[in-house]
Amino acid sequence: MSDTVVEIDSLFDQDDIAQWVGQLWDKWNDARHPHRAEVQEMRNFLFATDTRSTSVDENTDWNNSTTYPKLCQIRDNLNSNYIAALFPNSDWLQWKAASREDAVLRKNKAIESYMKVKLNQRGSEFKTAIKRAILDYIDEGNVFMTAKFVEQVRMNALGDEVVKYRGPVAVRIAPSDIVFNLRANSFASADKVVRSVCTLGELILRGEDEPEMREAIQKALAYRDEILKQTASFDRSDWDKHKAFAIDGFGDLKEYFMSNTVEILEFYGNYYDSDTNQLYTNQRIVVMDRMHVLSKGNLPGWMGSVPIYHVSWRQRDYNLWGMSPLANLVGMQYRIDHLANLRADAMDLAVDPPLGVRGDVEEFIFAPGERVEMGESGDVIELGKNLNGVIVADQEIAQLEARMEMMAGAPREAMGIRSPGEKTAFEVSKLDNAATRVFKEKITQFEEEVLEPLLDYMLELSVRYMSGNETENLVVNENNRTEFRSITRDDLMASGQYKAVGSKHFGDQALLVQNINNLANSRIFDIVAPHISGVQMSKMMETALNIEDFGVFKENAAIEEQMETQSVANAAQETLAARDATEGDLEV
After folding, report:
1. 485: in domain
2. Looking at the structure, do residues 89 and 10 belong to the same domain, yes or no?
């Protein structure tokens, strides 16, 4: 080994823990390679504008390369319907207390209203993160989310600092930026490594937000500068020979260190220190450049678990990496493109067939009205093709498209595609609920495994970082009026959990209204009518129709309004009679 290589190798003095975290990333990243290859093939079809960028064209010599974007259409259908199911109205979020002491109306209202206000503020960008996570759910089959507490400050025209947003922010983790032990019993119990690449400026700002890492970041950056100074005279061939590690996404280590970016690896889980023979649980280790440990210690959360939440669209046996709803439709997309281009080539042959020239034939132009000179034995023959296969291809393409919609669990009725045959309103509702059962199960799974625990963690962050009183806009139901109410830390401290009820509103309440309507129009209603409370029925319909803010239903409201109307009418009549009497006396 040359002296130059020894000198370069000596510069990369890795901490033992940093080296171990880097090796974990490489090990688990290699283990998920089949899954990433599956996703990449699906993405090639998903965003293809023709078949040349997909595997369809690998073994064909077609003249046509059209792709039918069926896979993309199913993706857009699922995405729009998932978003509509999650957020069908403003009351998609509810707080459920877990104890009698915390089930106080004022406390419940404060906790629920506080989070609604935070999620709707511009700085939170909550729905943007959720919409991107839904695309991960469809494209990758896996969603990873966490949250952080931020304080966004800007300068106004007078040079004063103004807090733009202060509160919890949902963070989507790209599936390509996280690895874990895929053989663990569950994702919650699996050790994890999250990778991020940031600029040097962003790293310095992170040190301001996390003071415990500030000194370690400054030392690591100083060491990085020292590496660049000592290796300034080395060329690329010297770097290529050294035995140091490689960092994903960069051509080599020289390119990485010459860039303005830094790789950060964050380990979450348990590890055993062989030097001290001690087991550390619920740990968070932050590593920079795969050499320096910036932070090491217990997880800062109160819940005692890693605040990273995962849901998979289709779970695999003995593998925590889920499967996308589109993954096993790639072969059918391949078949559709294959048939479409085969049919197009056949049509081209029918319209513009090759010609067989036999005997003595002068050179000619094959076009309408052209003259062809040929000898006695000469002849020109069209080598046409039988077009029966074109009709069969059309039928098979239509069947494949219908099957793909069904297998992805896409709600076809929501797109206006109605199954054949005349049906009553009840039959339509029943068939729709049966046909969308997979869709509802998958969106409910997203709510329960990611959205609800994420909201609970965002509330924990709010309580942990809240200081003093914060005034928030709380919407009061009566007359849709807005009040400014002071919320304290004690108001938000309670045992319970957030419940995302968007998808339940989306399907269950529509079915409830349909069933009540069917009951009201049946003979059974006359039998049960004496036992039905009109007040309770009004409350149920008010909740089902989501019109609580309008105050439409109120006990005996119609009778009171009729009495008030009659009173005004009587007063008007008395006034009119008095005026007529006065005018009569004046005439006399």
Report:
1. yes
2. no
